[in-house]
Amino acid sequence: MAKQSHNHAQWSSRTAFVLAATGSAVGLGNIWKFPYMVGESGGAVFVVVYLACIALIGLPILVSEWLLGRRGQSNPINTMETLSRESGRSPNWVLVGIAGVLGAFLILSFYSVVGGWSLNYTWSTLTGDLGRSSGVAVGDYFEALLKQPWTLFIWHTLFMLLTFGIVAGGVKGGLERAAKWLMPLLIVALVGLIGFGTTTTGFDEAAAFMFSPDWSKLNGGVVLAALGHAFFTLSLGMGIMMAYGSYLGQDVDLIKTARTVVILDTLIALAAGMAIFPVVFANGQDAGSGPGLIFSTLPTAFMEMPAGTIFGTIFFALLTIAALTSAISLLEPVTEFLEERTSLPRIGAALVAALATWALGIAALLSFNLWSGFTPFGLSIFNLLDALTAKFMLPLTGLAAIVFTAWFLDSDGVKQELGLGSTGRVVWHYVSRYVAPIGVVVVFFTSL
Ligand code: PHE
After folding, report:
1. Which of 142, 234, 300, 364 has its CA 20 to 30 A from that of 120?
2. 27 CB under 6 A from ligand 1?
3. Nearest residue CA, atom 4 of ligand 1?
């Protein structure tokens, strides 16, 4: 994205942009979080509501964030400052940008802990520690890991160091180019796991669990979880997509591009579910066991399949890389914020941002062991950080972005910018003004 036009850099091509946006969107949210949320929230009911949230709320908000960013040509805070001034609205809209930076900081803190798990699993699958030499059964490895604050600390630190190194060292572009090859590999690995799943006795049950809804399981909590996850998985409500949009050229078709990113992200999540649940059911494991789901399930599969050690190592390495491409996108807004608001040079800003998130991450990892008794609002620190961001901050910030776009920008200009035909205009009008915002508000208030 080096090409200079006017005074703000631009992506070198649409492909470079799609890769960076997909790199941010596809990560632990798809492979770690989605399956365990499906498992906790009643299976297919969650999947159906999630798909509806993605299509009716996530997609239009993604388009809005890119559009705002492209118009503002700056970081989210400055963008909201400029656009609210230009359209004669309250300067308080800048809060959207600020909430985004704060959200990114909070998410990265616990994201890095999970990235650390993924790194640990890559290593211990490779060395055979997982299951054999450690003296812990594969299925119990995760529980045992959570009880060791030092081990969690070391891997969390390592993950954060990698993230910092990439952001500070300016090798982001390189990583994004690498993602071009690694992303398809991740998909191949998931398809391979699904293939393995078909050989187990749990495949049919898994398919029914994920795609045949039992509506009696539907409730406000499930809907809010699905909505929050739609934001999380598409990296919405954090100014990240807005920042990416600021580097976009006028010629890029936002709707078409958003569709590509959303479809990829969704397919990867669904594939992850179909990779994991056959193993869960074939081994009589608990689908609703929470955040440890993939970590206690997949190693069982790797133990059973031929060349499982190699395959397992590759799988967790790919997961770690997908997590890193998301983590760098989370560190970026905090870094940029510090760089612009303080006198710190870029590397110093990245260091302060990384240190602060790392420190909060320590609190998150301690909540699995030493601090497990400390549960403000009935949640552990880890779960609190997750709930606060996914269920409150992201939906509200995303709501603000779409309300601003749909109601406060020149609506004809927006429709033209989106290249909409006559039907498209009507659909965009109703979806962006009513369906998406009302959807967020209704879900939000009914589930409180
Ligand atoms: N979307 C990423 C994932 O699904 C997580 C993420 C959230 C990244 C918010 C950036 C911002 O893993």
Report:
1. 234
2. yes
3. 29
